[in-house]
User: Fold these one by one.
Assistant:
Number 1:
Amino acid sequence: MASLLVTGGAGFIGTNFVHYWLKQHPADTVVVFDALTYAGNRHSLPAPGTHPRFHFVHDNICNTASVIEVMQAHRTDTLVHFAAESHVDRSITGPDTFLETNIIGTHSLLKAARRVWLEMPKEQGGPFPEHRFHHVSTDEVFGSLTPGLPGSDEHAPYAPNSPYSASKAASDHLVRAYARTYGLHTTTSHCSNNYGPYHYPEKLIPLTITHILNEQAIPVFGDGQHLRDWLYVTDHVRAIARILQQGTPGETYNIGGHNVLTNTDVVHRICSEMNHAFAARPDLHQRFPQARAAQRGQAQSLVRFVDDRPGHDRRYALDTRKIQVELGFVPQIAFDEGLRTTIDWFLANQAWWREMTNH
Ligand code: NAD
């Protein structure tokens, strides 16, 4: 039986990870450690007292003493680190919190893990020779790829272009340094764009869905031709689980969805799906009477091209052969299927996203 500390477990991917893990490993202890920033939602997780081995700690990962206390109290052997400031636009207008959480916060966790797992004396229950620190990183650390060039593999040089990706790159280096210098058992994954249930509605896919329902303009940056590889969130979670169980300490793994689309393609596919949903479901007309565009089958007319994001990367692409060959991981959810499931989830969970957006 494992004891997991999941940082950022009240955010999008962390929430999906926690639900998956509790279902697959009901005997394990799962402690979520989350500061509940604007992106975190306690209600996305099991309610207090409903799961015997689930615990929630409301705190900041920069508080090293608190992390150490929680790890000791729960005899944590596995730390899965999702907590981050994650929205590129916010990193452009306010980079400081990105450096604070993504760099200082990650270092705080590494210090705590080193203290508990490597330095704790026997009389206090340590050390923990069997431990794992998994760091969740992004494909954005590799920067923008020239069209036609092969995807970045795990050894590609770093070239971050936004304060967000620069802060994630710095945290990756710290994780690597703690593995090399202190012998901490770490793994790192670089993942492409995720989508799915519990996605905060400021990101492209949930923003498009909720703007159609709210009859708001759908902003698309620049010419809309930026290429992203979309991965359904449960596939990401499965990949992390595979790395925790079979990955080699000290290694990094790329995780991609094999669904490369332009932003315009993504938005148009959502509009078509929403038009179909409104055509097939009279209840949606009653629940979202303001969504006139979707009722008339014209959600596309809400699209507005807006000034491009400064430093906006044109293309991300990953070479994912390593995780496929070494760990046997391949994503299972095709984009159209994942998109339909995601739209259904947002239609069924209006209260969740209304609370997140204060509409
Ligand atoms: P998110 O923004 O939805 O959630 C982040 C969570 O971290 C929130 O619950 C928030 O409250 C918490 N948090 C933020 N600062 C904290 C702090 N100082 N202390 C404790 N908790 C704090 O993020 P997400 O989309 O779920 O991403 C999770 C991780 O995956 C991030 O590290 C991100 O860089 C990485 N990632 C995301 C994507 C994606 O498409 N969303 C792709 C690749 C990698």
Note: The longest helix spans residues 96-119.
Number 2:
Amino acid sequence: MSTYQGLEILLSREQIAARIQEMGAQISKDLVGEKLVMIGVLKGAAPFLSDLARAVTVDATFDFVAVKSYAKGSKTSSGAVKLIKDLDEPIEGQNVLIVEDILDTGLTLTYLRKVFLQHHPKTLRIAALLDKPSRRIEKIEADYVGFSIPNLFVIGFGMDFAERYRNLPDICLMPPDVP
Ligand code: PRP
């Protein structure tokens, strides 16, 4: 078992970097000659977007949205998602790639896909670094998936526990004994 700062590593920085290069190459192939708007979903997607953007060879711009999910941290799991930071630029007629650190229940991406489609992009695709298919509530899949993982509590590379650990360079397992 590899560890970093005493945490068990699920996916190492080397594995992540290699997979992001492959994803970037595939996205570049699919969009050759086209422009791309990469939309990061704050906050967890920031490191992934940063690396993925440098792995694509197409002409790309960035935008960011933030959402609040009422399914999490609330006792009433309503599944409601609200946009708390909207796009800065219009996406009508653009090739859009939503960039997410993790596709879990699918509630967030189902909501964002619906909202973005109302803006009539030319194409709309999803890149998720991690996918937890066993957790899905909504029927949604990413076009580009870095790693499909079981239902583990993961931290690092953008993913947090109470806002901590986002800056870990590897994707690690959350230890059970942390308060
Ligand atoms: C995480 C992740 C996705 C969402 C996926 O965000 O970044 O946005 O959950 O979960 P879902 O498929 O069940 O909707 P989180 O709400 O933890 O916010 P963060 O990115 O700021 O950490």
Note: Residues 7-173 form a domain with the Rossmann fold fold (CATH 3.40.50.2020).
